[in-house]
Design a protein that fits this description.
Shape: elongated
Radius of gyration: 30 Å
Number of domains: 2
Number of helices: 13
Helix content: 25-40%
CATH class of the largest domain: Alpha Beta
CATH superfamily of the largest domain: P-loop containing nucleotide triphosphate hydrolases
Largest sheet: 9 strands, mixed
Distance between the termini: 111 Å
Strand content: 15-25%
Number of strands: 16
CATH topology of the largest domain: Rossmann fold
Oligomer: single chain
Structural class: alpha/beta
Length: 495
C-alpha cells in the first residue's frame, strides 16, 4: 500500500463523513506528522474547546497503526470513560476508513471496549490500543506511544494536593514508555498552576516547567490579529457570546489556552514575592543591623501555634516573620515542630528545645505562644528551658478570641493586596502556599476541609508584626538590631 500523509488521511476521512477539513485541522495534522517524521517524541497539543483535537488525535492513532501495525498505544485520561471514548472512536475509524479495514482482527475477543489488537506481525503481550484512567494501576504495562488526553480537568487540578498527585502519576509514565517512545499531551489548561504552563510557577516551588523540552503547538480560538481561526464554525459574534456567557477566566483558559485561575480562593499565591536570601547580622559603630537581601529588618514577629497528639490532628507550627523599614513582611521560616517517640524527654520539652534552636539561629527577641486549649503550662516550660540554655528571649502568652477565619483574613487581606508579603524559598517545602491558595473565608478548616495550621501561624505572626520589641535577643553581649540604641556624644561640661 503506498504511503499517505497524515493531512491527506484526515481529509479522506472527513470527505467520507461529508465534512470539509478546516484550515485549523490541517495545521494540527501537519504538526503531528512533522513531529513524528522528524523524531520529536515529546509533544504538547493545546487547542480551544470544541476544536476537534481529540478526534484528530484519534485519527493520528489510526494513521500510526496503518504505518506501524506493531505499535502499542496507551490512552490516559482523567477517568476511564473518557479514555474509552477515544478507543471507540479509533475502532470506528479502523472499521470504516478504506485504507484501514484490513487491520481489523478476525477474533471478536481482540476487539474490546477499552482495548483492541489489530492484525500485526509480532506477538506482543500489550494490545495495539489500551484505555486507562489516570488513577489506574499501570504496573507491567508497556507502550510505544502514550496519549495523555485531558488528564488535567477540574477534579484533578482544583487543589494543590490534587495537582501534585497528578504530576506524580504522570512522572510514572517514564517507566511505561519504551526508550524511543512518543508522549503526546492533549488538552486545555484548567488552572493557573497548570501542567501545560510555559512559565515556571516559582510560588508553588517549581524550578522548571512540568513539560520542559516538549514541542508545543498552541491553537487559541483567536489569532494574534484577534480573528477567529475557524471562522466557518466560530464567528466573531459567537466567540463574543461564549466570552460573555462563560466569563473572562473560563474563556481565557478554555478558548485562548492560557493557564488562568478559574476556581479561585480568596487569596492568590502569585501575589507573593519569593526570595533566597539568609539573614545577615553585623555590628558597626556600636549599632546592630539585621538585614535580608540588603534590606534592613526593623522587627521580628514569631508565633508558635502548639499542638500535641496524632499526626492527623493539628500540627505544631512556629512561624518567623520579619518586617523592614518599608513595612513589607518577610515570612522567613515556617517550622513544623516534631516529636520523637523514642526520646526520653516529654513532648513539651522536645518542642521547646526546637523553639530555642530557632531563637538562637534567627535572632528572635520574643516568642508569642498561643495557649488556647493547652492551658498555662507550656509558656512556663519554655521559660525554664530558656533559662537552662542561657538564652534571653521574651515569652508572651496569647489567647485568640476571634474566629480563625477572621484572624486569617485580617492578617493577610491588606498585605497581599499591597503585594507586601515575601516568602523564603524554604517555606515552599511546607503546606503554607497550598493552604493560602485554597483558603476560603467561609471554610473554618481551610481549603476543602484540610489543615490550615501553617497559614494560621503565619497570620498570627503578621498580625502582631507591628509591635516593635525593645527588649531583644542578647547572648554574648550582642547589641540590639531593632533600634539604633544609645549614642554617646562628646561634651565639655559636667553633668
Amino acid at each position: 500500500m503506498p504511503p499517505c500523509s497524515f493531512p491527506f488521511f484526515v481529509a479522506t476521512w472527513n470527505r467520507l463523513q461529508n465534512q470539509m477539513t478546516p484550515r485549523v485541522h490541517f495545521v494540527i495534522a501537519d504538526f503531528l506528522e512533522r513531529s513524528w517524521v522528524t523524531g520529536q517524541r515529546r509533544l504538547l497539543l493545546m487547542a480551544f474547546r470544541a476544536c476537534g483535537k481529540s478526534t484528530l488525535v484519534g485519527l493520528f492513532c489510526v494513521w500510526l497503526l496503518l504505518k506501524s501495525p506493531d505499535v502499542r498505544i496507551l490512552v490516559l485520561s482523567a477517568d476511564l470513560a473518557l479514555a474509552k471514548k477515544m478507543v471507540r472512536n479509533v475502532k470506528r475509524i479502523l472499521e470504516q476508513h478504506p485504507l484501514t479495514t484490513h487491520l481489523r482482527p478476525e477474533s471478536a475477543d481482540q476487539w474490546g471496549a477499552d482495548r483492541f489488537t489489530i492484525k500485526r506481525a509480532k506477538e506482543l503481550r500489550d494490545p495495539s490500543m489500551l484505555a486507562k484512567g489516570i488513577v489506574s494501576n499501570l504496573t507491567g504495562t508497556r507502550a510505544d506511544v502514550i496519549i495523555c488526553d485531558d488528564v488535567e480537568v477540574p477534579k484533578t487540578s482544583n487543589s494543590f494536593s490534587k495537582r501534585e498527585n497528578l504530576r506524580e502519576r504522570l512522572l510514572e509514565l517514564d517507566y511505561i514508555l519504551t526508550p524511543d517512545g512518543t508522549q503526546l499531551y492533549v488538552g486545555t489548561p484548567h488552572c493557573y498552576h497548570s501542567i501545560y504552563a510555559d512559565e515556571v510557577r516559582s510560588e508553588f516551588g517549581e524550578r522548571q516547567i512540568f513539560l520542559d523540552g516538549f514541542e508545543r503547538l498552541v491553537m487559541p480560538i483567536l489569532n494574534t490579529s484577534g480573528e477567529s481561526v475557524w471562522p466557518e464554525r466560530f464567528s466573531q459574534e459567537r466567540i463574543e457570546a461564549i466570552r460573555l456567557r462563560t466569563g473572562p477566566a473560563h474563556f481565557n483558559s478554555q478558548m485562548m489556552c492560557e493557564p488562568t485561575r478559574i476556581e479561585q480562593g480568596y487569596f492568590t499565591a502569585d501575589s507573593l514575592h519569593l526570595y533566597d536570601d539568609e539573614l545577615i547580622y553585623r555590628e558597626a559603630g556600636g549599632q546592630a543591623v539585621l538585614s535580608l537581601g540588603g534590606r534592613r529588618m526593623v522587627s521580628a514577629s514569631v508565633w508558635w501555634d502548639p499542638a500535641f497528639g496524632s499526626e492527623r490532628g493539628d500540627r505544631s507550627i512556629l512561624a518567623i516573620v520579619y518586617s523592614d523599614e518599608d513595612g513589607d513582611y518577610f515570612v522567613h521560616r515556617v517550622l513544623p515542630l516534631t516529636i520523637s517517640k523514642t526520646s526520653s524527654l516529654d513532648e513539651a520539652t522536645q518542642q521547646c528545645r526546637q523553639v530555642i534552636d530557632a531563637i538562637t539561629a534567627y535572632y528572635i527577641p520574643c516568642v508569642r505562644l498561643e495557649i488556647n486549649g493547652l492551658g498555662k503550662f507550656l509558656p512556663n516550660v519554655l521559660r525554664r528551658e530558656l533559662g537552662l540554655a542561657g538564652v534571653s528571649c521574651a515569652v508572651e502568652e496569647m489567647v485568640s478570641k476571634d474566629p480563625k477565619g477572621e484572624r486569617i483574613l485580617r492578617a493577610f487581606d491588606a498585605p497581599l493586596a499591597a503585594r507586601a508579603v515575601h516568602i523564603h524559598r524554604s517555606v515552599l517545602k511546607t503546606p503554607f502556599v497550598r493552604e493560602l491558595e485554597e483558603w476560603r473565608p467561609d471554610d473554618a478548616r481551610g481549603g476543602h476541609g484540610g489543615h490550615d495550621d501553617c497559614l494560621d501561624a503565619v497570620a498570627g505572626a503578621i498580625a502582631h508584626a507591628g509591635v516593635r520589641i525593645k527588649r531583644l535577643f542578647v547572648r554574648g553581649g550582642r547589641a540590639s538590631w531593632q533600634g539604633r540604641g544609645a549614642h554617646h556624644a562628646p561634651h565639655d561640661f559636667d553633668v
